[in-house]
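Handout, section 3.2

Students often ask what a structure token actually looks like in practice. Rather than define it abstractly, here is a full record for Ribonuclease HII. The first block is the sequence as you would receive it.
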Amino acid sequence: MKIKLKRDQLDILLEKSKNYTNKCGIDEVGRGPIAGPVVSCAVIMGENHIDGVKDSKKLSDKKRRLLAEDIFENAIAIGYGIVDNHIIDEINIRQASLLAMKKALENLKDKNDNPVKANLALIDAELIDSDIDQIGIISGDDLVYEISCASILAKVYRDDMMIEYSKVYPEYMFEAHKGYGTKKHYGAIDAHGISEIHRISFMKKYYEQANRKIG
């Protein structure tokens, strides 16, 4: 089974998924930044429902991290998929995002580091290259509990990666903007050029505009 649903078809998702035992939520973060990887998380949650879980973009950093602790404690299995900027430049960001989701699904492990296989993947707006049954739903990161949990874990994981990158490349202030194209970020690129973790394919339009200004 592979089906894609609109945001107003949540009732179909609930009906189709009710008999599965190992339901896995999958989401990715980092499609928009001009630097750093795209990161996906897959998570199978336990029976305890955590209050306050929703799309990671609608949460403060402090709230995300508090919820992430509860998700880690209650999760049956978690997996991450990371695709770096070089692969993003090679295959484009959408394909890189799908690859990260597939990797996350394949990397599912329990707290004892044992591999765990999901029998249904609930995915935010996408379907991926896997034989596992899948339901993709638009706005799933805000509507489906398991996908929201994955969204939070992926966001915290990627943010922490960018904070670590900021120690290697302090001049770009990755800890502040997490690789997104802010005014200060572009200013740092003007001053220092691009780093090893910048997405060249995302910089073409910026350089074209900069060249027009110089000309």
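Discussion prompt for tutorial groups: The chain has a mean pLDDT of 94. How would you have guessed this from the sequence alone?
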